[in-house]
Amino acid sequence: DAKTTQPPSMDCAEGRAANLPCNHSTISGNEYVYWYRQIHSQGPQYIIHGLKNNETNEMASLIITEDRKSSTLILPHATLRDTAVYYCIVMIYNQGGKLIFGQGTELSVKP
Amino acid sequence: DVKVTQSSRYLVKRTGEKVFLECVQDMDHENMFWYRQDPGLGLRLIYFSYDVKMKEKGDIPEGYSVSREKKERFSLILESASTNQTSMYLCASNRPGQGLNQPQHFGDGTRLSIL
Question: How far is A20 from chain B (nearest CA, A)?
Answer without folding.
Answer: 19
